[in-house]
Amino acid sequence: DLLKEAFEFFINQRANKPAELIAKFVDSKLRAGNKEATEEELERLLDKIMVLFRFSHGKDVFEAFYKKDLAKRLLVGKSASVDAEKSMLSKKVGFNWSCLSCV
């Protein structure tokens, strides 16, 4: 418990920046052209990202950046995988996703 508390304290030192950076990292992994990982590897990576995300206090900031990036990916056809998008949206990240039906 002490280690988790210390990590949570550490990751939130820069207010909203960690949430923004996590959202941008997710965007880079979900963009078309990111052929580094198989679907299974991408799923494992998203799970790991969500573990990190749960420590962040800037969930609203993450949501704002994620939704903006999701809209861009979908509108310009740059999403690597609809299944990966749905998987990311379905992850339990501590708030309601109002855009689940977007994909």
UniProtKB/TrEMBL annotation:
All residue ranges annotated as the Cullin family profile domain in the record: 17-91
GO MF term list: ubiquitin protein ligase binding
InterPro entries reported for this sequence: Cullin, Cullin_homology, Cullin_homology_sf, Cullin_N
Pfam families for this protein: Cullin
Listed GO biological process terms: ubiquitin-dependent protein catabolic process
Annotated PROSITE patterns: CULLIN_2
Family the entry assigns: Belongs to the cullin family.
Full protein name: Cullin-4A
Organism from which the protein derives: Cacopsylla melanoneura
Lineage: Eukaryota, Metazoa, Ecdysozoa, Arthropoda, Hexapoda
